[in-house]
């Protein structure tokens, strides 16, 4: 049987066993602002991924503690938060509102890197949400009105009938629905991970109890 062994996965040609990032967080891990590092990684991924470099797996839990995970699009990295948009009547929104917390991971095969985030969640429902909604394509804006997200649907024809009704009502200028907007994930923990040769990965965890405190950075074992 030929091919790359599991132990060699991630190894670059000529990679040495001891190769990797130094403890001082040089190279791709350098910097005192984790949000700046995240923006830098995302920008690099946008030039390397075939599509949707901002796709992230968002995890929430329901009232019984049962987890749910789904893909959403990261739309902004603010000075203190990661932002995505959704329907406020969706199941994910219901679980976010109940728990007040969420987690996500964004992984890039092209870069062999990922970022994991856990934190508290607040709404982004003001002018920023209005501006983002207005930037979307017309069909996406109409679709946001037509979708009763996560609710049972009798047929696709029923959905398209709602789209037609909304189109007749709003034409080319649908406003942002009151049930649609953003969420800001304010991290308490961020982990940056980079694939290493022979599974000797580089991991750095940033933790702080609140946005008024300084980040504590720890290198983790692979």
Automatic annotation (TrEMBL):
The protein's role, per its UniProt record: Catalyzes the oxidation of either pyridoxine 5'-phosphate (PNP) or pyridoxamine 5'-phosphate (PMP) into pyridoxal 5'-phosphate (PLP).
EC class (word): oxidoreductase
Pathway: Cofactor metabolism; pyridoxal 5'-phosphate salvage; pyridoxal 5'-phosphate from pyridoxine 5'-phosphate: step 1/1; Cofactor metabolism; pyridoxal 5'-phosphate salvage; pyridoxal 5'-phosphate from pyridoxamine 5'-phosphate: step 1/1
InterPro entries: Pyridox_Oxase, Pyridox_Oxase_CS, Pyridox_Oxase_N, Pyridoxamine_oxidase_dimer_C, Split_barrel_FMN-bd
Record GO terms (molecular function): FMN binding; pyridoxamine phosphate oxidase activity
Cofactor descriptive note: Binds 1 FMN per subunit.
Annotated signal sequence range: none
Protein name stated in the entry: Pyridoxine/pyridoxamine 5'-phosphate oxidase
Every Pyridoxamine 5'-phosphate oxidase N-terminal domain range: 50-168
Annotated source species: Poseidonocella sedimentorum
Gene: pdxH
Positions contributing to FMN binding: 70-75, 85-86, 91-92, 114, 149-150, 193, 203
Keyword Glycoprotein found: no
